[in-house]
Structures are given as C-alpha cells and as structure tokens.
Amino acid sequence: MKIKKIFNNNVILLVDDNGDEMIVMGKGIGYNKHNSSTVDFSQVDKRFVLEKGVSDKLIGLVSEIPTEHLELSNEIIEYAEQQLSVKFSDNIYITLTDHISFALTRFPEGLFVKNALLWEIKQFYKAEFEVALKSLDIIETKMGVRLPEDEAGSIALHFVNAQQKGQDMKQTYTMTKIVNDLSNIVKYHFGIKIDESSINYSRFLTHLRYFAYRVLHDELIPDESDSLFEHVRDKYPESYACAKKMIHYFENNYSKKLTNEELVYFIIHIHRVTSREN
Asked: Which ranges carry the PRD domain (predicted)?
C-alpha cells in the first residue's frame, strides 16, 4: 500500500492497487514521507479498516479536526472495550471522535452543554459511566483539559449506542428516557423505594432496555394462542394494575399498543422487583 495523504507524523491515509483506503497510526510513521511512499508496517500501531461508508466519513472527519483527537478517541475506545468486555460497532470511531473534538473546541470558549439525562445515565448505565469518568482522566492527561461530568454522561451514551447495532444517538436518548419513565411508573404506583443494588432490579432494567429497543424498532413479541397472560394477570393483580399504566404511557407518548405477551413479562418483572420491597 502507498501513502495517499499524510495527516501528521503519526497518522496517514494509505491506498492499495484496488483503490481501497486505510487509515493507520504509529509514532513517526509519516515523518519525512511523501505521497506515493510505501509504509513500514512494523511501525503501525493501529489500523482503521472499517466498512466503506464509515471509512469515508472517518477520513473526512480526520481532515477537519486535529489528528490528536483521533488518537485520543482511539485510546478511550480501546480502554472502554477492554473494561466493558465488548466490541463496539465501527461507527463509534466517527461519533465519539467528533463528540470529543467538539467538546474540546467548545471548552476554551466557555460553552458547556448540560446533559439532561445525566442522572438517568448514572443509574441505568453504571459500568459505562464509570469508564466514561476514567475517559475524562485520559483526556485531562493528554490534553490538559478537565471536561465536566456532563461530558462523561455523553461519552457513556456513546458506549451504550455502540453496543446497540449502531443505532443513532437520538434513539439511545429515547431509550434511556423510556427506561427512566417506566421505572418511575413502578416506583410511584407502589409508593416504595426500590433497592437499586438488587439482582431483581438489575434484571428489571435489563428487560426495560431490550423492551425499549423492541418498541422503537416495531419488534414487539406477538401474541400467542396459548398465552399465559390471563393466568399472570389474575395471579398478580396489583402488578397488572401497574402494567396498565405502562399501556397508557405508550399509547399516549408513542402511539404504540403493547401485546399481551409483552405484558406477561412486564407483570412478572414488576412483581419480582416490588415483592421484596413490600
């Protein structure tokens, strides 16, 4: 492969004989080089071999921002994947890099955007938020800038988003709002303080997240002829009364009608998460 563009001494764009492009990073890899030079791959620390559409967007982004921001974002992504034991979708190299670069650009101007979902992110995505806080430490060490905690919330959502089949960030915000609203419906209906460290609450939140995803993608579990709905409804009447409030919530806010099969799981999870507290 030959050099097509040199972004700086550490980041360059390569192209092969078929016209396929690759961004590579390595200390001094672009030093004293010129276009059409070949590359010593023993100097390469990171290769960005991404999907075609993602690769084009990343090349465009790197052309517009300081390349140090790409290096910083890459370090954060690798750290997060290791700590969370996940493999993010390629799109995070664009979304997170762009977000971090924009945040660092705003900082000297005193422009801060409050994260309206910060509390919810802390509650529902604790692991991602802890890693995001560490990301602020990495940014401070590399750039000498301490971004506010609100930015940790936004970075955490990028981690969450990159685990959800590459959905857009707006949908991730909507999912987080749904989880928070449904959780509050349960708390207020029963008038209790739920133990948020319990395994039942953890299971409940997991169910809510996957449920919110299915709602937004019109993938609700269909009704079945041998449904357990009537049995579960009669066995846990108070949990069913709470579930009915969720029905109204989705009808009023999202024009969605829940299936009885979805209600079966809701009623069971509501019973589990509230019976211990009661």
From this structure: 64-169, 170-278
